[in-house]
Amino acid sequence: MNVRETSIVKDLSLAPQGRLKIDWAREHMPVLNRIREKFIAEKPLAGQKVAISLHLEAKTANLAEVIRDAGAEVTITGSNPLSTQDDVCAALVESGIQVFAKYNPTPEEYKEHLIRTLETRPDLIIDDGGDLVGILHAERPDLMEQIKGGCEETTTGILRLRALEKSGELKFPMVAVNDAYSKFLFDNRYGTGQSVWDGIMRTTNLVVAGKTVVVVGYGWCGRGVAMRAKGLGARVIVTEVDAIKATEAHMDGFTVMPMMEAAKYGDIFVTVTGNRAVITGDHYPLMKNGAILANAGHFDVEIDKVSLEEQAVSKRIVRKDIEEFVMQDGRKIYLLGEGRLVNLVAGDGHPAEIMDMTFALQALCLLYVHDNHEKIGRHVIDVPYHLDEQVARYKLESLGVHIDDLTEDQEEYLASWKV
């Protein structure tokens, strides 16, 4: 297959600068590089076709090349229209990976890229937000006959998968990579926490210290966003619907209140819930002049953009990735990145060292599904603990950090009911 002829990318001449980005990421992803060495030697995915839908930037490209080095034929597409980097796509094509992705495609083109990826008839998939799985189950079941299973990257995708499983309609096994300790404790908290503020600060060029930040949702991503906002000198308000998470936010030192109250105080709002319409038309009339809205959830449904446009008398682009909405009373509300993932639309996503752990899990779990799909059955399963711990140990080794091991006596004590 000549991927230069079959791929859909913006401009292959961008490949050299994309290669520089990928190589930089690779230099800072030692765990994945260790797995790469093993994959090159053993070729455990030889003869397999792998379809990937992820945010298509340099760290993701490194994962795709590791899976290729395992012997697989890889096809990749983006999981968000505004997070795809055209130079990275070009570099992947030049490295022998088939790509169907461009920055800011039309909705029709975006859907076509997903379907074209699935029309390669993959054996295994890596999904982000459940787009590939959704198309296979709802629209193109003819393309899933040889799929052994796959992995899911996000909370949003896992919610969709578990709904499919509960209804008895899931047709192949999926591993909930997002729920692994080495993923959510680091990727969701430290990755999202840093990259969201990278995106907001790069885009607005405004100070965070002294401002009031409203974090909508206190899951692992929300914890990270709130923690980093506090570290930057902001006053932080958290809104929640879960009593346990709200109690935790309070005990962590943040102010907790309903969104209708928080709307009056926020200078910057960040949504991280995975749900829809958490900031709505009821909230806009209460907001300060100059309020900034940003979303860090997977889909662009958390901020009600329709109501914002309906209430505004005018809108314009005032900076790259910033839309200004002028309300009837003259107040201005700013929306970042069209309400899409601000850390990827307006930034470069999570740090390479963080994605190193997540993508190492993806690579190992994909191999696990390949080897165990019949035993797993049509279920959504957690990442096997030994793989989770393996990634953590590789990470510690790359940092030069050493830990203790249990003695035989300690293991026997923990395994016994006797004191």
UniProtKB/TrEMBL annotation:
GO CC terms: cytosol
SUPFAM superfamilies the UniProt entry points to: Formate/glycerate dehydrogenase catalytic domain-like (SSF52283), NAD(P)-binding Rossmann-fold domains (SSF51735)
Claim: Lyase is one of the keywords in the record: no
Reactions that this protein is recorded to catalyse: S-adenosyl-L-homocysteine + H2O = L-homocysteine + adenosine
CC cofactor: NAD(+)
Entries under HAMAP family matching the protein: AdoHcyase
One GO term (biological process): L-homocysteine biosynthetic process
EC number: 3.13.2.1
Keyword field: Cytoplasm, Hydrolase, NAD, One-carbon metabolism
CDD domains in UniProt: SAHH (cd00401)
Organism: Polycladomyces abyssicola
Family in the record: Belongs to the adenosylhomocysteinase family.
Pfam families for this protein: AdoHcyase, AdoHcyase_NAD
InterPro entries: Adenosylhomocyst_ase-like_sf, Adenosylhomocysteinase-like, Ado_hCys_hydrolase_NAD-bd, NAD(P)-bd_dom_sf, S-Ado-L-homoCys_hydrolase_CS
Subcellular location: Cytoplasm
Binding site residues for substrate: D128, E153, K183, D187
Pathway: Amino-acid biosynthesis; L-homocysteine biosynthesis; L-homocysteine from S-adenosyl-L-homocysteine: step 1/1
UniProt KW Cytoplasm keyword: yes
Protein name, entry field: Adenosylhomocysteinase
Cofactor note: Binds 1 NAD(+) per subunit.
Domain spans labelled S-adenosyl-L-homocysteine hydrolase NAD binding: 188-349
Role according to the record: May play a key role in the regulation of the intracellular concentration of adenosylhomocysteine.
Family matches, as SMART domains: AdoHcyase, AdoHcyase_NAD
NCBIfam families xref list: ahcY (TIGR00936), PRK05476.2-3 (NF004005)
Gene Ontology MF, one: adenosylhomocysteinase activity
Binding site for NAD(+): 154-156, 188, 217-224, 240, 275, 296-298, 343, 350
